[in-house]
Amino acid sequence: MSAPAFSGLELLATAVVLLDADLRVVHANSSAEHLLATSSRALAGHIFCTLFTDAQPLNAKLREAIERAWGFWDQELALTRQGGAVLALNCLVTPVEGPRGARLVVELRAIDQRQRIEREERELTHAFANRELIRNLAHEIKNPLGGLRGSAQLLERELERPELREYTQVIIKEADRLQLLMDRLLTPHRAPHVGPVNVHEVCERVRSLILAEFPEGVRIVRDFDASLPDIHADREQLIQVVLNVVRNGAQAIVGARKRGDDAPGTITLRTRVARFVTIGRRMHRLALELQVMDDGPGIPPELRERVFYPLVSGREGGTGLGLTLAQAYVQQHGGSIECDSAPGRTVFRILYPLDATKAAA
User: Fold this and answer.
1) Which residue from 246, 198, 248, 265 is spatially nearest to 225, judged by alpha carbons?
2) Beta-carbon neighbour count of residue 219 at 10 Å?
3) Highest mean pLDDT among 67-71, 95-99, 165-169, 327-331
4) What is the pLDDT of residues 301-340, one digit of tens each?
5) Contact at 8 Å (CB) between 352 and 267?
6) Are the beta carbons of 324 and 262 closer than 8 angstroms?
7) 3-class DSSP state for residue 19?
8) Exposure letters 13-36 (e unless 16+ CB within 10 A, then b)
9) Is there a contact between 16 and 105 (Cβ–Cβ < 8 Å)?
10) Are 12 and 29 in contact (CB under 8 A)?
């Protein structure tokens, strides 16, 4: 249990370690526990630099910071943990007069974490801009579509030759298809209807739908953590998220087989608890992690960076909206979705903070 004086540090996604005048650990927040793979209680009282095998230069800088009461910023610092793990870090040291004799605040941020946060922020900005563009475009297209369809219906009534009505029917059906597409583009702007949802029931529903849609050639394996609690989410939106991602994998597998590729055809739905997850610069102690894995041909390299962009599809006849909608729904729930793909293994990783369920409720 953290002391009340340090409770505010537990809200930070950055690893923070407080050191006394002897460079012994006074306190480490949850992010630091995760980064250093050691509990705060076990760290307390240890000389900080002895946690690493190659921290002599850092130790000299920390002692100078104590003596001169000044701070420093060390970028791209490499430290090897006892046990062999190498940490690539940015390190900010600030002198303080804190509780329990704390003299230095050491902030550590893994460089890969910073890069991931920056990538998430870029993706959020792109997603928001794309959704606004598509929403405005959809509104502009919907208005003339109604007039186009109505005019075709009026024209059909005036035609004396029945065979000519085939052409007006083409206009009407294509207008209806475009109207449905516009409705799908505008769907993410509906406010979620939040309630208790069991993620495994959602996965079972999606599994039954996919097996009915692809009766041959696709096998779905369940790897569930039964201890996961219910989350507060929009059930229909969550079903749509998982369905879009799983269907994407199934279509890739079936398409590969039609081209003559020997794809095993297995999709795995895996649920776990993820600990100390950072989403949008906020650290969450616990999060639901849902992985959708398939052994299909993978996403083409030229599309991997744009897989969540609207109207981007690697499949002939695809609308390029399924993953865009999935990303929009996940972000509405305060979560994140990312993709890692290579031939023979594609993984979509969906994270939903479990501490967000109370806020959503």
Assistant:
1) 198
2) 13
3) 67-71
4) 878 777 777 666 656 555 567 788 888 888 888 888 888 8
5) no
6) no
7) strand
8) bbbbbbbbeebbbbbbbbbbbbbb
9) yes
10) yes
CA quadruple 279, 269, 339, 215: dihedral, nearest 10: -140
Per DSSP, 84 falls in state S
> Which residue type is seen at 10?
E
**Which tokens go with 75?**
């970028």
Residue with tokens 């079972």: 204
Concatenating the DSSP letter of every residue in 222-276 gives EE--TTPPPEEEEHHHHHHHHHHHHHHHHHHHHHHHHTT-----EEEEEEEEEEE
Tens digits of residue pLDDT in 268-292: 999 998 877 777 667 777 889 999 9
β pairing state of 266-279 and 219-223? parallel
DSSP 191: P
Closest CA to 120 of 264, 280, 227: 280
Contact 336, 351 (CB under 8 A): yes
Alpha-carbon gap, residue 97 to 104, rounded angstroms: 8
Give the tens place of pLDDT for each residue, 111-141: 765 566 666 666 666 666 666 666 666 666 7
Please report how many Cα atoms fall inside a 13 Å half-sphere around the Cα of residue 274, on the Cβ side. Answer: 21
Calculate the average pLDDT of the chain. Answer: 81
In terms of Cβ atoms closer than 10 Å to its own Cβ (0-12, 13-18, 19+), residue 331 is: buried
Contact partners, residue 319, CB within 8 Å, separation at least 6: 181, 184, 311, 313
pTM: 0.57
Is the pLDDT at 1 greater than 50? The verdict is no
For the chain, the residue count is: 361
Please give the structure tokens belonging to residue 26.
Answer: 């006074």
Task: Count, in order, helices (H) and strands (E) of the chain.
Answer: 9, 12
Max CA separation in the chain (angstroms): 99
Please name the residue that has the structure tokens 């949008």: 280
**Distance in angstroms (rounded) separating the CA atoms of residues 243 and 202:** 9
Buried residues in 170-195 as b, exposed as e (16+ CB within 10 A):
ebbeebeebbeebeebeebeeebebe
